[in-house]
Amino acid sequence: MFICPRTRGPLSGLYSERAHFTYPTVDGVPILLPDPRSLVDRLQDPGQTFPDLTRLSVPDAVTPHLPPSMLGAPSGLGQWFTQLGEETPEAVVVSFGSRHAPPGPALDLGCGVGVLARRMVASGRMTWAMDIRADAVVTAKRLLTGQMNVALIPTHRQGTRRVKVPFKPILTDLAFCVGDATLPPFAPESFSWVDMGDVLDTYGESAPEAMVEATALVQHGGVLTVATGYGSLGAAGEGSPGPDEELLEAMTALGLVLVDQRDRVPWVSRDYDRSWRIRFSHCMAFRKN
User: Fold this and answer.
1) Quick check: pTM over 0.85?
2) Range of the domain at 236
3) Is residue 274 part of a domain?
4) Taking all residues of the chain, what is their mean pLDDT, rounded to a whole number?
5) What is the number of structural domains in the chain?
6) How far is the CA of 287 from the CAs of 94, 115, 181, 241, in angstroms?
């Protein structure tokens, strides 16, 4: 399935004959970057362990998988979270993929700790989870495959509590890799459904290049899903501009057609027992004709 990110040629296992190079692994996760040496050199034992799993953009690995109704906020905020139930950008995006994408494999292009990848597999698809952050991919693999049964969740700045991972291990139909969205290690038209994760928010000036590459990975008739955030709670007020106008124009130029969308989908994240962040996202699904 993988191709060489340097030569764009096929790999035999993880060996590129044209580049005369074997790509390394971390905890069994292939490091498919054009120059993986700088990353591997920072690892204490690249074949077995990854020493630093703390550089994630979330306070812990489990909470991002929880729906708002399970976050336990007090009083009025807690009532609103309960009303939201399972509503998250990931849930909306999965509904788009299930409804519009033809049968076939899926790619979570910016997988983070595997929230969407887990839902993609549950929808019945062989799924690849990829991120440029090796710590996130290794954590996602350990969490989703049952290697991590218990996680520490911060309760406040100085305290944590242990929680059991609230879902069953995924033992089939899920693969992981570390890769760059601007040089993805997959052949064109490999997937019937590609989700861009947080790529548009994290890649900065390289986001247009990542969009072009993501579109190339989608089969004709397949679907590309995107969720773009407004930023803060106040930014999604009545009459505020959506984040989608420039994106719609770019997607149309790439030959994609908007087939579904949902605006102001709340994304709730928990830092501590008394600290939550709320953003709103515009979720969209595009078909590649």
Assistant:
1) yes
2) 36-288
3) yes
4) 86
5) 1
6) 15, 23, 19, 24
What CATH number should be reported for the domain holding residue 182?
3.40.50.150
Report CA 203 to chain centroid distance, whole Å.
13
Per residue in 105-164, pLDDT tens?
Answer: 999 999 999 999 999 999 999 999 999 988 899 999 999 999 998 888 888 777 888 888
